[in-house]
Amino acid sequence: MDCLCGARGDGDHEVTHKVKNEFLQQMDGVATDNQGVLVLGATNRPWSLDDAFMRRFQKHIYIPPPEQQTRSEIARVRVRDVSHSLNETDFAAIAAATDGWSGSDLSTLIDVARNVELDHLPRATHFLPMPGYEEAPEEAAQPSDVRFPSGHFLQPCSAATAGAVQTSMEELLRLGLLRRLKLRDVSRADVDHALSVARPAAMSLKLSDYEAFTKKHGMYGNK
Hints:
By secondary structure, the protein is mainly α. It is 42% helix and 8% strand.
């Protein structure tokens, strides 16, 4: 919407002028024969749109940032495909700490939390063998290393962890054991770290500006 329907001005390139005029004419055609047609646009800068385009959209609906319960549900959905130790208290805390964040901001936050362990992986120096790994036939035929028993995952851990084996990612690569890596569950500590480094993009635009525009030109989508 911002690119195609932005306010027209004397400084516009001739081609841009023609494209916008053609789009306006096509929208006029839709207005006279619109059986089964829905034209839907989205923008986060509605005040920058051309008045002629705004008039051709019958409804201007403001979708505010998700409320607290919705933010909690978004966080829950974003971690459902990974192992995690988050509980209802943790999801409630995430929601409470992200007032004014958009759904996209929350997704970015959870992605950062999910990648904390992955970001530390290249520097890992100790790994804990954990049972439960199913070897492929070709793996069983390879020479084994007594430090890494067959049928075990290898999870990065601290040097103080009981049973930890000191090694490096380079050595695991050389031994062909990378497929046995198992990252730990995403934890509340990972989320707290993500909250300390992630920033909401939506906060750069004042919500009061949207409220003012909606009162003058639009309607609320959640009321």
